[in-house]
Amino acid sequence: MIKFKRNLAKKFYRINQYIQARDVRVVDEEGKQFGVMSIAKALKQAQEKGLDLIEVAPKAQPPVCKIIDFKKFKFLESKKRQEERKKTKRVELKEIRLRPFIAENDFNFRLDRAEEFLKDGDKVKVVVRFRGREMTKKDFGYELLKRAVERLKSFSRIEIEPKFVGRQLQMVFAPLKGGLRPPGGRKSGQAKDENKKVNKKKV
């Protein structure tokens, strides 16, 4: 038997006869406590059940040991880490590019993608690119962003207001914490205020 077992997170666990404490607090795999006992008695209980004794909290006084099959213990720890990684997903900034005179189907397709990104927990930067004389039609860009705000309001909040960077009109949406915005969940007048901000012309 290997003296120290290592799980996927590079963490060591002492098991069975390799536990060094003289007395330990024993729990089962459901967390039920059996109290403090000598290591010899704890090992005997684990052996009678055909399971392992695993030191899960070595710094506690006395150390805490769990009676459970070690393979099952590793599986549960791996599953727990996967859930934790999902909760701490790295937020990325996705970019959606529009043109001031974009076709309706193309606009809807790109906003569908933006919606998917926001639901996945990522931020979305919507960019309207102007070329040549299109710069004289900035109102079309603001109108597109106004429509984007309306379309994405159930999934996002505005993080960066519309602004021109060179020939690009940009704004950034951030996903809502806790998922979708409930019906009527917006503060009174908030949607109107956001649309007013989008309508402001900035150079």
Give an account of the 3D structure.
The protein is of the alpha+beta class and 203 residues long. The protein has two domains: 4-87, Translation initiation factor 3 (IF-3), N-terminal domain (Ubiquitin-like (UB roll), Roll); 93-199, Translation initiation factor 3 (IF-3), C-terminal domain (Translation Initiation Factor IF3). The protein contains five helices and ten strands, in the order ββββαββαβαβαββα. It has helices at 39-48, 70-87, 104-119, 138-152, 190-199, and strands at residues 4-6, 12-14, 23-28, 33-38, 52-57, 64-68, 93-98, 123-129, 156-165, 168-175. The strands form three sheets. Strands 4-3-6-5 form a four-stranded mixed sheet. It is rod-shaped, with a radius of gyration of 28 Å.
Would you summarize the structure shown here?
With 203 residues, the chain is an alpha+beta fold.
**Structural class determined from secondary elements:** alpha+beta
CATH H-tier superfamily of the largest domain: Translation initiation factor 3 (IF-3), C-terminal domain
Q: Quote the beta fraction.
A: 25-35%
Terminal Cα separation, in Å? 71 Å
CATH topology name of the largest domain, in short, is Translation Initiation Factor IF3
Task: List the SSEs and their pairings.
Elements: E1 4-6, E2 12-14, E3 23-28, E4 33-38, H1 39-48, E5 52-57, E6 64-68, H2 70-87, E7 93-98, H3 104-119, E8 123-129, H4 138-152, E9 156-165, E10 168-175, H5 190-199
Parallel strand pairs: 3-6, 7-8
Antiparallel strand pairs: 1-2, 3-4, 5-6, 8-10, 9-10
Helix pairs in contact: 4-5
